[in-house]
Amino acid sequence: MAPKNYFPPILIQTLILGIFCFSCRQKSPEELSEVPDFKVPQFRLIPTDTFHFNNFVDCNMAEVWVGDTLRIFPGKYGEDPVWGFAEDLKFASGAHADEVFGTPAEKYIAPNLPKNAPVGQAGLHGAVWFETVYQDERDPSGRTLYAIYHNENYPETLPFDPQTGEGYLDQNWPLGLTERITPAAVPRIGVMKSTDGGWNWENKGLFLEDKQPRMILNPHNISKTFAGGVGDPSAVAVDDYLYLFYGEYGYPGEYNPETYSPETEASGQCISVARIKISDLDDPQGKAKRWDGKGFHADWDGIGAPISSLQIPKEKGGGPASSPQGGFHWGPSVSWNTYLKCWVMLMGHVEGQSWIGDKLYISFNPHRDLGHGDNSQAWTAPQLLVQKPGHVLWYPSLQPLNTPEDIAEKNTSLKLGKRARLFFKYSDLGKYMSEYLVEFEK
Fold this sequence. Notes:
Elements: E1 21-23, E2 42-52, E3 63-66, E4 69-72, E5 77-78, E6 86-87, E7 92-94, H1 97-101, E8 127-135, E9 145-153, E10 186-194, E11 202-208, E12 230-238, E13 241-248, H2 262-267, E14 270-277, E15 289-291, E16 296-299, E17 328-337, E18 342-350, E19 359-365, E20 383-387, E21 393-399, H3 404-408, E22 415-416, E23 419-426, E24 431-441
Parallel strand pairs: 17-22
Antiparallel strand pairs: 1-2, 2-24, 3-4, 4-7, 5-6, 5-8, 8-9, 9-10, 10-11, 12-13, 13-14, 14-15, 15-16, 17-18, 18-19, 19-20, 21-23, 23-24
C-alpha cells in the first residue's frame, strides 16, 4: 500500500479536537444538473473514548457480512525483500463491528492464501494487502467473496521480462522508505477469490498495473515512496460494475530524464478511478478500463486521468508523488451513505518525504450511478476532516457501530448511515484507532 511499514518520529503533541462542523463547497448547477436539489452535506466530529484496534492494520479495512457474522481481513502477506516475509493477513469475526474490532490479536485466524511463485515464473509475486471485499450477489449463501488487493514488488521480486513488458529494471532505481539503502516498491492491484467465506483464497490475476516505462527514476524521484504504480484502492459495486478508486503514482506517459517535467507528472497523479464488469472478476487481467478524461476508455495498464476536483493545485501546495514536498491526496476509502443518499470519500494527504502528512480529508459525490456520463468525477473539493499536528495519519475509514440499525442493515465500511465511527492509523505510533464518531446532516 502506500507507505506500508514506516514509522516517522513524533514532532509535537497531538492537537485535541473538540466538536467541529464543516460544510463542503457547493458544486455549480451544471455540475449537479442531474440532482439539482443536492445540498452538500455537513458533518461533525464527536469525540469518544479511544477505541483501539487490537491487531496490525496497514491498509483500508476489508470487511464483509457472511450470514450474521461480520468478518474483517487486515494485515499483510507474502514476500518482501526489504521488510521480510509477512504472515499478518488474518481475519476476525463477530456479531457486530465493536466485537470484531476489539478481537485480540491472538484470536485472529490465518486463511489459506496462494504461495508466491518463483521469480521469473507466472503467479503471485510480492506482498499483498486486502483493501476491499466484494460479496458476489449471485451466490445466495454470501460465501463467494472477491478481495481487491494492493500488491507491492521490487526489481528483485519482479524483474523485467522483455517478452511481456512486465516487471522492473534495476537501473537508476529510487530509494524506498527505510533509513537503509533499500529500493522503492511498485504497487499493483489484483483480485483473489474465496468460495467459503474467506477461509481459502485463489489468486485470479491483476486488476490494474503501471509498467516499467512509467516508473519515475533517479535523479528525479527522491520522495522515498514508490517508483510509480497504482495502489491503495477502495472498490464499490454499482449495477454490473465494480468501480475502483485508487492512488496513481506513475508518470502520465513514458518517463525520460531528459524531458521530465514535474508539472506533467503531477497532472496525471492523485486519486483516479477505473471499473471492471463484475462478471469478469474470475479472469480480470486485461478487462478493466480506466477513466481517460471522457469515459472509461483507457486500458487496464494504460494512461488514465485522475479526478481533477481531488487534485491539489500547485498554488495551494500541490506537487508530484516523486517530490520530497509531496502535495497530493491518496488512499481513498469510499462508502455509500444511505442517510445522505450520496457517496462519501475519505483520503490522506502527503506533504513530505516518506508519506508524511498530518491531515485527513472528506469529499462527497451525489450520483449513485457512477457509470453515467462523468458522474464518477463529480466529487466535491476535499475538505479538512481531522488534523493531528506532529503525527502522520494514514488509512482513514468510516466504520459501522454496534447499534441495532447498523447490525440489521449489515453495514460495513462500504455502506453506512447517519452516524459512523472514524478510524485512522497513527503511522508514527504504529496504532490504528478511533477517537471520534462522524455525524452527518443533510
